[in-house]
Design a protein that fits this description.
The complex is a heterodimer.
Chain A lengths: L8 H32 L14 H28 L2 H33 L7 H22 L3 H29 L19 H44 L1
Helix pairs in contact in A: 1-6, 2-3, 2-5, 2-6, 3-4, 3-6, 4-5
Chain B lengths: L1 H13 L4 H19 L3 H22 L6 H5 L2 H6 L5 H30 L6 H26 L7 H8 L4 H15 L5 H30 L1
The chains are: A mainly alpha, B mainly alpha.
């Protein structure tokens, strides 16, 4: 039993149809528990007041925004090296979700920043690099949309994803150099001494798990749609040939 | 490869608009900015280096589609890929030709435009250095965007969306270098970062561009 079995679309469709309802259910449970716990059953923080509750949407979406790009990088690499179509379609399916996650992180950040920093937007390194990441997502999706041949599109977007990853990371550290930030440092690291207090940490864990499962569910769903669309195209083509 | 470079340069010059258009566009940007922000000297002096960098970016971007599109249409790109030199070398030469026709004139003319924008005295030297070190990266990265969109009918807008985010690091360090130079601060760090990015881009990106062209010609 190897992971490459799922490169077979038939096998993928079969397994994903079994897994999908479970993932959806778990995602819903984790998100409801995390968000309700976080919004209604945690105390207000001393420095933040009630705005601390934005964290339950802001942090998971920001984490997903970065990790979805990493997932697209891996699937693009798999496509470029081993040419499994499911992999390329999964990358295509993930991109809009990643873009929306980036947007959610930016918007919730603005909502949080307004009362805390007194501004909706600041050219802070973290904020700026997220905006740049959003632009990379847009370019990636636009390139998918512009090319008709699906294999060419998968190849070119794969190459773009590789080059884009390097430049996204480079930009991340370049903007550090360019401006000093308002954004606080990481407080969720496992190896740091000073971290967020457990009262906020546990519901946040549920939210993060919920966002991850939600993303997995969406990717499975969208990849299934892409596979079906691909099959439909093939059928139409065969019809025309006959 | 030299022959290819000379061919591209001749084409750019004789087909019209090779050297001139980029510069004219640069001049227009520089002329329009004071209308937008007001003619006060101190405001212009503060944003001068940023404007000159943005102008260079846009002038470079507008001429990108020439790198491969014409050769793709008349079929000479197919011939070039079968040439006995590696496609990576061809891509690098084409990017170099693009830089000589758009980047180099901008580097040479930038001080004159700086004059129009009241660029402070010590910044001139650093402006030339920054543009001279940074613009090759713009051309090479642009050739990557052009290679990705070479098969598309209307790739212009898409190409700007693909290429401009890649210009972020170069722009940051390039503008920072001029700013620090103008204020008499230490310039080693941004200069080394800018040069490092350009060197890495020249070394690595032609491979990605060549891969994209191979995919597009398949």
């Amino acid at each position: 039993m190897s992971i490459w079995e799922y490169a077979n679309p038939v096998k993928f469709m079969k397994t994903s149809s079994l897994v999908l309802p479970w993932v959806v259910g778990l995602a819903a449970i984790a998100m409801v528990v995390g968000l309700v716990w976080g919004f209604f059953f945690t105390p207000e923080a001393t420095n933040f007041g009630s705005t601390v509750k934005v964290i339950y949407v802001h942090v998971p979406s920001a984490m997903m925004a970065i990790n979805i790009w990493a997932m697209m990088l891996v699937t693009s690499l798999i496509w470029l090296v081993r040419r499994h179509h499911v992999s390329a379609l999964a990358a295509k399916a993930a991109a809009p979700i990643g873009a929306v996650m980036t947007l959610i992180a930016l918007i919730t950040g603005a909502i949080w920043g307004q009362p805390m920093w007194g501004t909706w937007w600041e050219w802070d390194p973290r904020l700026t690099s997220f905006l740049i990441l959003f632009l990379f997502y847009l370019g990636y999706m636009a390139l998918w949309g512009a090319i008709e041949n699906p294999d060419t599109a998968a190849d070119l977007t794969g190459v773009l994803c590789l080059v884009g990853s390097v430049f996204a990371i480079l930009s991340r550290y370049a903007v550090n150099f360019w401006n000093q930030g308002l954004h606080q440092g990481a407080t969720l690291s496992l190896d740091e001494k000073e971290n967020i207090s457990d009262v906020y940490w546990f519901p946040l864990l549920f939210c993060i798990a919920g966002f991850i499962l939600f993303f997995v569910a969406l990717v499975l769903l969208r990849t299934r749609t892409e596979i079906r669309a691909r099959r439909l195209k093939a059928l139409e083509q065969r019809e025309r040939m006959a | 490869m030299i022959a290819l470079l000379m061919r591209d340069l001749r084409l750019a010059v004789r087909a019209g608009g090779g050297f001139g258009l980029g510069l004219a566009f640069f001049l227009i940007v520089v002329t329009l900015v004071p209308f937008g922000v007001g003619p006060q000297g101190e405001v212009l002096a503060r944003i001068a280096s940023g404007i000159l960098w943005l102008g260079a970016l846009l002038a470079c971007l507008l001429s990108l589609d020439r790198i491969f599109a014409l050769d793709f249409e008349d079929g000479s790109l197919d011939l070039l890929t079968t040439a006995p030199i590696p496609l990576e070398g061809i891509v690098a030469m084409k990017a170099l030709a693009h830089w000589i026709t758009t980047g180099l004139p901008l580097v040479i003319a930038a001080p004159v435009f700086g004059l129009l924008l009241h660029l402070p005295g010590p910044a001139y030297f650093w402006l030339i250095v920054a543009l001279g070190v940074g613009t090759p990266a713009l051309s090479v990265l642009g050739s990557f965007g052009a290679a990705l969109t070479v098969g598309l009918k209307r790739g212009g807008l898409l190409m700007s969306l693909l290429v401009l985010p890649l210009y972020v690091p170069t722009l940051i360090f390039g503008a920072e270098l001029v700013r620090r130079g103008a204020e008499g601060m230490a310039t080693e760090v941004p200069l080394m970062m800018l040069a490092g990015i350009t060197a890495a881009v020249i070394a690595v990106v032609p491979f990605a561009s060549a891969a994209a062209i191979r995919i597009n010609l398949r």
